[in-house]
């Protein structure tokens, strides 16, 4: 019996091995437990199901990409940094392509609740990839960046899954085009939000002055006996 601390990783590896061999839809938790060499009770203790194992796998990939970051990369332009981070992610996923093709074909075999958790997980991953490339992800602008990169990554991921080249140059070219287009939208959003914040600031200041003036006028018009 493997050490309990190792069981989650063993389950993930077993699940991906089975996904590479047959349809992900046909992979059961019993199959995963038997392949991992653990009991079904151990599976229950360490994960909530197949969707949970996929989320843990995505977290592992996040960790691997972030651990390989080089401080020197932050001296490069943002576009180049983000390109490098996303391609590093694909490099980390390369050994699992057959399994991922099976999982994507079955759309993850996720129910409604697991689908919502998967979306949240992907948003979290893309937020970290943006931060790793030096982009701010806080506030409304940052949230829009996360949503935008999530959509770009999903399309590029599909391109990568079908890319039979030895160096994934078609995937790199596709990602380069998508990020270049997104950069133009990002600048427009930044400019538009800047104008909107300034306008909101002016409106708030006018409202504050109006309220202060109204309070002053109300105090000056009170009956003399009340003021005394």
Observed structural traits:
mainly alpha; extended; Homeodomain-like_sf; about 75% helix; about 230 residues
Short structural description:
The protein has 228 residues and is mainly alpha-helical. It has a domain at 69-214.
In DSSP terms (H or I, runs of 4 or more residues), the helix count works out at 10
- Biggest β-sheet description: none
Radius of gyration from CA coordinates:
26 Å
Distance between the termini: 87 Å
Shape: extended
Percent strand equals under 5%
* Helix content estimate: over 70%
Order of secondary-structure elements: HHHHHHHHHH
Low-confidence stretches: none
Mean pLDDT: 86
What is the tally of beta strands?
0
InterPro entries: COQ9_C (IPR013718), Homeodomain-like_sf (IPR009057), HTH_TetR (IPR001647)
GO molecular function: DNA binding
Keywords: DNA-binding
Protein name: TetR family transcriptional regulator
Describe this structure in words.
This protein is mainly α and 228 residues long. It has a domain at 69-214. It has ten helices and no strands. It has helices at residues 7-21, 29-36, 40-46, 50-67, 78-93, 97-105, 112-132, 139-161, 169-220, 224-227. Helix 1 crosses helix 2 (29-36), helix 1 packs across helix 4 (50-67) and helix 1 crosses helix 6. The longest helix has 52 residues, at 169-220. 22% of the residues are buried.
